[in-house]
Design brief:
The complex is a heterodimer of chains A (113) and B (113). Chain A is mainly beta and 113 residues long. Chain A has no helices and 11 strands. Chain A is globular. Chain A starts with a strand and ends with a strand. Chain B is 0% helix and 58% strand. Chain B contains no helices and 11 strands. In chain B, the strands form 2 sheets. In chain B, strands 2, 4, 5, 9, 10 and 11 form a 6-stranded mixed β-sheet that branches. In chain B, strands 1-3-8-7-6 form a 5-stranded antiparallel β-sheet, with no helix packed on it. In chain B, strand 4 and strand 5 form a beta hairpin. The radius of gyration of chain B is 13 Å and the shape is globular. Classes of the chains: A mainly beta (113), B mainly beta (113).
């Protein structure tokens, strides 16, 4: 167990729907990063939050959004889902705002049908 | 932005032999290069990392080398064991680290008994 908790582990939903993925970082970690892993694109950085504030954006679609709450857990919201959004979504956490060592959770597998 | 190329995509070695995975990066501002191991159904796990002011780092059977001039870095695993079978990812991080990691596409390492 890495200490980073992601729920749910699996999610199946229909095109056009909206889902929310949840991440609880390791105790003491203030940074949360979201990554998408797909067969064709590999592991891609989506967004980084530090202590409740957005710090950097990667290849995140406008249909996707995220937030980090005062208790430091984070949610990734995916809307108007398309078949191509099917992927593994990972959350990672680290202690500092500018940090090097990430700890990844075990991911949420999203299947859009 | 940064681009990380990783080779080979699949590597099969006999148990006890050595394995080498190579990566190149494009952004000379990148200064941190981690390697992750991902087993089936799990998130990536950091196994070793190196910063740009260091040429080589070892941790038991695992070593990483960095050639900043050529912009490439390599993972070396000696005396391979069955539990080394997994997908390995290299990554690069630029500057202060607020931006996410840029990952290679991964190498599926197969240890033949």
């Amino acid at each position: 167990d890495s200490g980073v908790t992601q729920t749910p582990k699996h999610l199946i939903t229909a095109t056009g729907q909206r889902v929310t993925l949840r991440c609880s970082p390791r105790s003491g970690d203030l940074s949360v990063y979201w990554y998408q892993q797909s067969l064709d694109q590999g592991l891609q950085f989506l967004i980084h939050y530090y202590n409740g504030e957005e710090r950097a954006k990667g290849n995140i679609l406008e249909r996707f959004s995220a937030q980090q709450f005062p208790d430091l857990h984070s949610e990734l919201n995916l809307s108007s889902l398309e078949l191509g959004d099917s992927a593994l979504y990972f959350c990672a956490s680290s202690v500092a705002e500018y940090d090097y060592g990430y700890t990844f959770g075990s991911g949420t597998r999203l299947t859009v049908v | 932005g940064e681009n990380v190329e990783q080779h080979p995509s699949t590597l099969s070695v006999q148990e006890g032999d050595s394995a080498v995975i190579k990566c190149t990066y494009s952004d000379s501002a990148s200064n941190y290069f981690p390697w992750y191991k991902q087993e089936l159904g799990k998130g990536p796990q950091l196994i070793i990392d190196i910063r740009s002011n260091v040429g080589e780092k070892k941790d038991q059977r695992i070593a990483v080398t960095l050639n900043k001039t050529a912009k490439h870095f390599s993972l070396h695993i000696t005396e391979t064991q069955p539990e080394d079978s997994a997908v390995y990812f290299c990554a690069a991080l630029r500057g202060g680290g607020a931006d996410g990691l840029t990952f290679g596409k991964g190498t599926h390492l197969i240890i033949q008994p």
